């Protein structure tokens, strides 16, 4: 990797960390960047996941105030994300790279639609689902999102925001803080497995790790100031960009 390519990867990591803290889909910056500098797809995916993990954690730390009073939710949802991340990481190592390609754009589109319609849908969900614990389907949905996040992870945050925003009774910024913790768990456990059993491009991973950590704190600082409508619009826009990028 030349110094220019290294700088390119570092800047992509910063952008990805910022986007992940606010919404998600940072992988759509870093993964194509790694491919562009000549890293093979599976190796790029593994190295990218490891590199983005510190940035996701930085975003979660930046949203710590929004996490106050959500200990119970974290204790219920973290195991689902943890198990999902393990399954997804194993699938990445075992399945051909094209296995999920057809369904990923559809999942992102579904997430965008759910986020956009979240206020309307929330009003029409029966009251028993809108307790502090959330709807019954939130935990299995978080588990399935964890599988996707461990496998690839692009727009994992969009899907999580849709699930949490509709299935739990809390404002969007508090859900964003929760989303950052769950994404950290998924990326973290997948990264551990990849470090143990997979080949890693450590230079690429290190550059993305530095960039995404800086970006994570920047994204948390400014993203938490967005009003709910602005955050919702940003989620949908980034999700649509993600779909267009992956399809074309």
Automatic annotation (TrEMBL):
Membrane topology of the entry: Multi-pass membrane protein
Keywords: Cell membrane, Membrane, Transmembrane, Transmembrane helix, Transport
InterPro entries linked to this entry: TM_pro_TauE-like, TSUP
Source taxon at top rank: Bacteria
Location(s) in or outside the cell: Cell membrane
Principal place of residence: membrane
One Pfam family named in its UniProt record: TauE
Residues spanning the membrane: 74-95, 102-121, 141-166, 178-196, 202-222, 229-247
Similarity comment text for this entry: Belongs to the 4-toluene sulfonate uptake permease (TSUP) (TC 2.A.102) family.
Family matches, as PANTHER family: MEMBRANE TRANSPORTER PROTEIN YFCA-RELATED, TRANSMEMBRANE PROTEIN YFCA
Name listed for the protein in its UniProt record: Probable membrane transporter protein
Organism: Kribbella ginsengisoli
Biological classification of the source: Bacteria, Bacillati, Actinomycetota, Actinomycetes, Propionibacteriales
